[in-house]
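haha ok so turns out i had the wrong file open the whole time. this is the CORRECT one, sorry everyone. sequence first:
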Amino acid sequence: MPNSRQSGVLLHPTSLPGPYGIGELGKNAYSFIDFLASARQKLWQVLPLGPTGYGDSPYASFSTFAGNPMLISLDRLVEEGWLEPIRDVPEFDPQKVDYGWVIWWKMPLLEKAAKTFLEKAKGSVRESYDQFLKEEAAWIDDFALFMAIKEDYQKKAEAEGAFGKMWSNYWDLEIRLRKEKAVQEWTKRLAKEIELKKVLQFWFFRQWTELRQYANQKGIRIVGDIPIFVAPDSVDVWANRKYFLLDDKGQPQVVAGVPPDYFSATGQLWGNPLYNWDQLRQDGFDWWIQRIQSTLKLVDIIRIDHFRGFEAYWEIPFGSETAVHGRWVKAPGMELFAEVKRRLGNLPIFAEDLGVITPEVEAMRDAFDFPGMKILQFAFDSGEAGASGDNPFLPHNYVKNCVVYTGNHDNDTARGWLESAKPNDQDYAREYVNDHSSNVAWGFVRAALASTALYAVIPAQDLLDLPSWARMNTPSTLGGNWAWRLTEGELNSHLAEKFGALTRLYGR
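then structure:
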């Protein structure tokens, strides 16, 4: 990766403004890139881009390879003739995504457009579609089949008053275990639905690729995100059962989480199935390498979530109510990244090295020269490391090869953090960033940009000095997360000038 000081903004595409209830890959996405360029920024960081389900978390996607069709620009489909001009748009909340309402309204429009495409697409457009299916054959057939079957069973479940059912506890055993005859029967039965899913993926990948190219032309690189674990209700697990620790019916034997700590007396029970690392190693880590290669088709830099889990992970018996009774289990991270490097070369990776970090985790990170992460909010939390000068999250203690954030998607906004912090922590933070004004978020922004960290990434909410209601996610809670949106005009030329001036001042 470049050795020059750079900065950028964290903003998931769902948070972009627009009239259709959710951010899209249309004109407002291009306008955001223009804002970044005018503010002298070099990075746009996003969360995982896959399709989301119950809970709306991009970290619990139905597929680690697919894109979220809700991000497809409807206006682009109108321009290309696949969709009639859109009328009678509901009055969506411009500041929050209501995922249930958006999906209910938007998916029929997407499916209608996809049907038109399959009926009328000819020439180079049809050739591009066919070529896309060939290039993505390793995952797209399984994905489209999985989603079509899932929706079919979902109708049955809803008719019975059951919601949130997963493939591993609701599907008939034959298709749950991917018996060849059952796969053939379902593929034939749902052929039309399967093809529609593929068209939506074609549109997502084409629109995103064009957007990324535009960003690159403006000198901006996209920072993507790979969660270490995949969702239990995903095609990744269903189609690759040998790579996960499952029983003979597809249920997890053990699940992921983190142990009790200062923030939680019972730890965090994530519930993701854990990897069968012996099988992955035996197969040359092919699945993981395909996953990284696929992500690099969409982004320029990869942030790997829960990096420490590649050295050792917290294994919890399936069925546990908390994470208390887990244990640490070693993982072959050094072997994995050595094989990745051997086959793909040096990779642009940010390591999310937060949490319980041991010398072994640090050694694995440093062996591959991955920049680690610093969260500025943690620097002033007297309950975690003590409000003292040796706190590793204070900018004067950073090593050069790291990425500093004022906060990330799991943190409060800078203003929200300050308003809820202990009085002595508030005083220390204000004194350190030398900002006693009402909009102290900009003191945090300045401290991040001024730090020795090679990379600085600022959540859009902190540029706007927004309070807690604008935070993206509150861990261990359900409902209301991943919903925040920009409104039209918030990222204006005045803000770009102010942000750009600080960026220039600190040599980024």
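The two ends are 15 Å apart (CA to CA).
again sry for the mixup
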